[in-house]
Amino acid sequence: MPGAEPVRTRAPGPLRVAVVDYGAGNLVSIDQALTFVGVAVRLATGPDDLEGADALIVPGVGAAAPAMDRLARAGLVDPIRRWIATGRPYLGICLGLQLLFEGSDEDGAETLGVLPGRTVLLANAPTLPHIGWNQVNRRRDHTLFAGIDDGADLYFVHSYAGAPGGMAGEAAILAETDHGDRFVSAIHRGNVLGVQFHPERSGGTGMRLLGNFVRWATALSAGAGAERSPVGAGGTAGGD
Amino acid sequence: MLRRRVIPCLDVANGRVVKGTRFVDLVDEGDPAELAARYADEGADELVFLDIAAAPEGRATLLDVVEQTARRAFIPLTVGGGVGSVDAMRDVLRAGADKVSLNTSAVADPDLIRRCAARFGRQAVVVAIDARRIPVDIATAPRWEVLVRGGRDVTGLDAVAWAVRAAELGAGELLVTSIDRDGTQSGYDTDLLRAITSRVSVPVIASGGAAGPIDFVTAVTAGGADAILAASIFHRRLYSIADVKRALLLAGLPVRVTPGVAA
Question: Domain range for residue B87?
Answer without folding.
Answer: 5-250
